[in-house]
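thread from #wetlab-drylab

HS: before we spend reagent money on co-crystallization trials with adenosine-5'-triphosphate, can we at least see a predicted complex? here's what I'd submit
DV: go for it
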Amino acid sequence: MTINEKNTDGTLFLKDVTVKIENRLKEIREDLSEGQKEIENMHEYYWDNYTEMDQYGYEEYDNRQALLQQTNANTEKLKLKHRFEKMLDAPFFGRVDFAFEGEEESEPFYIGIGNFAEKTGMTPLIYDWRAPVSSLFYDYDKGEASYEAPAGEIRGEITSKWQYKIRGGKMVYAFESDTKIDDEILRQELGSSGDVKLKNIVRTIQKEQNAIIRNTKDRILVIQGAAGSGKTSIALHRIAYLLYHDRENLKSSNVLILSPNSVFADYISHILPELGEENIQEMSFDIYAYHELKGAVPDCEDRYDHLERIMKFPDSGEKERFRLKQSEDFVGMTEGFLATLEDRLIDFKEVSFRGAKLTEEDLIRLFYFKFQETPLLKRMDAVMEYFVDAYETLKGRDISDEDRELLQGKFDSMYVSKDLYEIYGWLLEDYGFDPLPDVPYERRKLQYEDVFPMLYLKYRLTGRNSRKNIKHLVIDEMQDYSFLQYTILKSLFECRMTILGDYAQTLDTKQHDVLKFLPKILGRDIRTVILKKSYRNTYEIARYAGKISGITDLDLLERHGKPVEEETFSSADALLDAVSENLNLGEDGYETGAVLTLTEEEAYDVYRLLKNRGTEASYVDRDSSAFKRGLTVTTFYLAKGLEFDQVFMIQPEKDNPLASQAAYICATRALQELYVYGVENGGNSDENK
Ligand SMILES: Nc1ncnc2c1ncn2[C@@H]1O[C@H](COP(=O)(O)OP(=O)(O)OP(=O)(O)O)[C@@H](O)[C@H]1O
């Protein structure tokens, strides 16, 4: 029986292909050890013959090149080795039998996590899920179908479709299905615990998700998707797809993901390696901003300080001020301020230097006309360079470092201030905001509401270096970025973008209208895709979450589970008893659970009380950087983007402006079970005292 024989249940092919993968692995291991020896020999030759190499260094150059080539070849082999080792565990997960238009016989195409051929250059026995032909598997039922190949559209007919589950090299199940990815398999994938972190979904990518992953046309793709619709998963699979198809131009170091915090970064960190790609850089925009502002302020508050404050002091006016300072109106105010700043910032004084001179009139001409386009805080440097050039040409020699320093002092002294902190303070005062505290540099701490406005002002005053090495930017949780932040991002990144989020999961009391203002900032070449099908939660949890958010038009996967349990207890003690009773983690239970609160203080209290009772838990705060198996205690805002098998959501005792947002975010974090617990007013625990 040949491995191409049709209508098998895949077991024979599995046997055959496993042997072939093993053989290939053996060859690769031998090549690798040969290659390693080769490198060692080259090193030895180099050291033995170093002194005798030709004086121009040609031989040395050749040696280095050969060494580099061999190292690169070894790295490529190592990657292949990793891929094939992974494939030995589960070589393929799908198969389409496709009869090309005009042909009677159909050909089987097995689909797996990567390509596999017996030898480099031979027709693959297994196709990478990202190969053009593999889209047949995700996009079509049995019947007429087509796919986009580099040479154009290929038409034909799918005569049969199979889905497999292979673990440890053994076939767990195989079944033929007429339809796209069968819902039953999807339910099984979602219902099965095992992975703690976000998993790859290559086995069950849905058609609408596949269209996003394989979209290469749109420069800026915006995905608005309901909680649990797979946005983060899709964005990462899309990067894997783009890296595979554009290897020449796009390397993993050219892709950057803006992620909300380090725990989230850890949570998603293994998907790309699992898909055979290197991990991509990750950055929090807040941390980037703090670095950029270091010259003006040694310390900045973070977003979580701001959130905690608006929960504690809802009527302080902070929410409204924050919103205004991140808005389009504030960008307008800053521009208005900049228009009058030139006159206010500079006090022109004639410059004389060793017989040469720049009169006030000269300075004004250069400053306002010749260097008009140079950012204000850099403009005097440009005028100085102009003067230095003219002086050096006249004298026929360069000026000394001491003289340059002297001149720099003279030109700098024309600025009334070069301190961004002070200048930003003027802007606030001009528009009637409270001024910044007048303290020396070491004692400055910027409130979160001022971080991005100050960064915007900085870039307008000094210019910015756009990040040209980044060719694709991924922005997750798009609803948490403001008009002002997108304006700054646009000036920093001129590249393709995948922007994803869910306006219902905002961390504000009011939803930002991101989808409306994005085209204003990023231009017209934006394509927005809306995802309404939610996969994460059981039907019961999704319905419950829908009631909180008022979102009723969701398409829910019929995966049923335990009803949501809502209960109010007479004391914190009784509440924690209920948590302990229902917690079902460990060998025979689930992998992950979370107790989620609104504020940091509440989270820490619960964590402490649980610990006192001997319940193992990890406390995740803003400085945490790892997502762990077991029970996690944290706030709703740090749990955003994550998921847990069991969620215990603790309702606040006092009114809280973010209560409804928090409830929606907490509820949608639960994969299998959701408990909504509260304590009656006045309920108090002895342990709590
Ligand atoms: N096609 C799919 N097959 C299997 N699982 C899927 C699929 N799509 C999504 N999922 C699962 O649904 C869950 C939610 O996915 P993901 O976290 O990517 O969604 P999200 O839209 O980013 O969620 P949120 O906005 O709520 O954080 C994950 O467990 C993911 O593995």
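DV: The CA atoms of residues 609 and 687 lie 7 Å apart.
HS: ok that's useful, forwarding to the group
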